[in-house]
Amino acid sequence: MLSIKGTSLETCFDCLFGKQHRVFFHTYPPHRRPHVLNLIHTDVCTMSDKSISGCSYFVTFIDDHSRKVWAFVLKSKDQVLDVFKYLHASVEREIGRL
Questions:
Q1: Three-state SS string across the chain, please?
Q2: Share of the chain above pLDDT 90, in %
Q3: Which of 26, 65, 73, 94 is deepest in the core (most CB within 10 A)?
Q4: Sheet holding 57-63, edge to edge
């Protein structure tokens, strides 16, 4: 019979990793703005092909409070401000905050 007492064994890091406890992510409440239109996330992207109307770009707006997403197509990047003004006015009309 083979005795393994006193014999040093190599450390298997995969076995040690598999036996570790998992640390859960913290579940803090989401940090959202208290009102619609307080913070808008935006991104302007290029499309690989032009649309039927000849647009080469699109812009997305995401409201931080409601997580609502709006997307608009653009022919040039300088239209972003005009589209944002239109969006801002239409959302304020929709929620009754003029």
A1: CCCCCCCCCCCCHHHHHHHCCCCCCCCCCCCCCCCCCCCEEEEEEECCCCCCCCCCEEEEEEECCCCCEEEEEECCHHHHHHHHHHHHHHHHHHHCCC
A2: 60
A3: 73
A4: 40-46, 57-63, 69-74
The answer to whether the beta carbons of residues 61 and 45 sit under 8 Å apart is no
d(CA 42, CA 62): 6
Task: For the full predicted model, state whether its pTM sits above 0.85.
Answer: no
Inter-residue contact 36 to 91 (CB < 8 Å):
yes
Joined tokens for residue 7:
């014999």
Q: What is the per-residue pLDDT across 32-46, written as a single tens digit (0 to 9) for each?
A: 888 999 999 999 999
- CA distance linking residue 7 with residue 33, whole number of Å: 62
Angle ∠(22,26,29) on CA atoms, nearest 5: 155
